[in-house]
Amino acid sequence: MRRVLVVAAGVAVVVVALGAAHSIRSEASGSGTASPTASAQRVATIGDSIMAGYGLDSEDLAWPAVLAAKEHFALTNVACSGAGFINDGDACNTHYDGLVSQAVAAKPTLVIVQSSDNDMGENAADIQRATSETIEDIHSALPHAEIVGLSTLWDQPGSIPDEVSVSSDALEAAVTAVHGQYVDIGQPIAGGHGLLQSDSEHPTVAGQRVLAAAIGKDLRKAGVEL
Q1: Superfamily assignment of 24-221 in CATH?
Q2: Distance separating alpha carbons of residues 36 and 33, to the nearest angstrom
Q3: Bridge partner residues of 31 (DSSP)
Q4: Using the 8-state DSSP alphabet, how is residue 33 labeled?
Q5: Whose CA is closest to 79, among 104, 53, 60, 118?
Q6: Residues 133-174: tens digit of each pLDDT
Q7: What is the pLDDT of residues 96-121, one digit of tens each?
Q8: DSSP notation for 43-89
Q9: Where in the chain are the domains?
């Protein structure tokens, strides 16, 4: 999501992989790894500031980590605030495709990619091309990994801009082209009391928990095993 004046903005891609315990790579610092268990899945996530837990005390409070703790999979979170398929992130100074190598290094077997609103204002054809290239790069590097796309979140007050569906549609087409799955998660926290920070855009701790529960439910409904 886009940051307010103090920082910058973000659309999200999530790469989830199967494997062991809970390992999280911060968008700005290094990675922390817990001792894995043989039965746990390895999960890598690529996304924007919502996935990175912008405005919270720790990335451990963001929905990927909350879901990983509940489902007991190993997580490598390479989300970067401000990043999109085209737009460069604030801390990482790159777009999603530049984060793929970090996700691939975790050797994930399930990849969840979420589109973001950080590319709003870009040409639709450019968004489609950049999205397709990123997903193809993930698929080429991880040919046996399952790839799942999640629709764009829009938490701000008012009607949802048409550009939000442009980014979601681009991801759906790209994921389908590599025989992955696309999951429309709707807007689980839009309008919810106490679920957004004062910027009316980024989730609170409670909002991240609602996202984790909603996304986990939608993934299971789609047959995605966590």
Answers
A1: SGNH hydrolase (3.40.50.1110)
A2: 8
A3: 25
A4: -
A5: 53
A6: 999 999 999 999 999 999 999 988 888 998 899 999 999 999
A7: 999 999 999 999 999 888 999 999 99
A8: EEEE--HHHHTTTSS-GGGSHHHHHHHHHT-EEEE---TT--SSSPP
A9: 24-221
